[in-house]
Design goal:
mainly alpha; 2 domains; 7 helices; 61% helix
Amino acid sequence: MLTQANKDGRTTVEQNKLLAVTYKGNPEGLQAWLETLKPQQRIVNSLDDAPNAERVAVLMAKSGDELFKGGGFNELKALSIEHFKAKYKEWTGKDYQG
């Protein structure tokens, strides 16, 4: 069950270790909880489909501080709002509200 959830992108290996202990003896509860999870898509995996993918990748590789100081956040926002939101959240810990 946990191996499949990991393959599906619903859990990580680290999460599976914790879940195995937490739900030991309660496979029905584990299954019910796993069914609530949606597969996560890494933003980096979607770069190949994005216009200006190479430039977006360069900007995503920079720290939030570097982007802020060099105006890269504005460029990233113009190129890919999805990637901008992800980088903003990584840097500030908050969702972008603009």
